[in-house]
From TrEMBL:
SMART domains on file: DeoC (SM01133)
Keywords: Cytoplasm, Schiff base
Keyword Cytoplasm part of the UniProt annotation: yes
InterPro entries: Aldolase_TIM, DeoC, DeoC/FbaB/LacD_aldolase
Pfam families assigned to the protein according to its UniProt record, in alphabetical order: DeoC
Domain of life: Bacteria
Gene3D superfamilies (alphabetical): Aldolase class I (3.20.20.70)
Keyword Cytoplasm annotated: yes
Name of this chain's protein: Deoxyribose-phosphate aldolase
The species this protein was found in: Spirosoma liriopis
Length: 213
């Protein structure tokens, strides 16, 4: 499985995550050469110190997690603090609630504001969709919205909702996203063969949570 390590992001966002679990994930990232570590905003400053400024692994955090329905101003404040604390990538949860309402026009405005802030600091920006809640047309529309806003990556799920990994759904998501935009797939429960298929079709990052006790 060594050949998959450069694609794997260890993701520690469940509410009961412990400091020991995070250190274990950090050890995996550094010893195995994983792509990165994704932690809650509270932990960014600490793990930036642990990784240092020049470590090749990416330290990511989430904004508006897990449902994305915070006010834009709240997301902006979260994003600015994450940048100050040393996040190397930002993953912003799309406001799915707004998508299902007549205020969906604000989604484009919000993403444009947040992308501009991130890119001004030369920081990669990911939009997270909760694709399990969306039909195919909605998924495609939100992928286009994120692409037009300037997202560097689009991620298929938050990982916060209880869903089973589906290779077919993940492959379809990759097809929907333009080749010019990176794709992250939440791959908890995927087999090694399935991970290899995702990488083969151009998935850039595999978000995998460590097994919890």
């Amino acid at each position: 499985m060594n050949h998959l390590f450069p694609y794997i992001e260890r993701t520690l966002l469940h509410p009961g995550v412990t400091i020991n679990q995070q250190y274990e994930a950090l050890d995996e990232v550094t010893q195995l050469g994983l792509a990165g570590l994704t932690v809650a905003p509270f932990w960014v400053k600490k793990f930036r110190r642990e990784l240092g400024d020049n470590h090749p692994a990416v330290l990511s955090t989430v904004i508006g997690y897990p449902f994305g329905y915070q006010r834009t101003e709240a997301k902006q404040a979260e994003l600015e603090w994450a940048l100050r604390d040393g996040a190397g990538e930002l993953e912003v949860v799309l406001n799915t609630s707004a998508l299902f309402s007549p205020t969906s026009v604000w989604l484009k405005i919000e993403l444009a504001k947040l992308v501009a802030l991130a890119h001004a600091q030369e920081t990669f920006f990911t939009v997270i969709l909760e694709s399990s809640l969306l039909d195919q047309d909605q998924t495609k529309a939100m992928i286009k919205l994120a692409t037009d806003a300037g997202a560097d990556f689009i991620k298929d799920k938050t990982g916060a909702l209880p869903t089973h990994f589906s290779l077919d759904a993940a492959l379809a998501f990759r097809r929907y996203v333009a080749k010019s935009v990176g794709v992250k797939i939440v791959a908890d429960g995927a087999t090694e063969a399935e991970l290899e298929q995702l990488v083969a079709v151009g998935v850039d990052r595999l978000s995998i949570s460590p097994l919890t006790p």
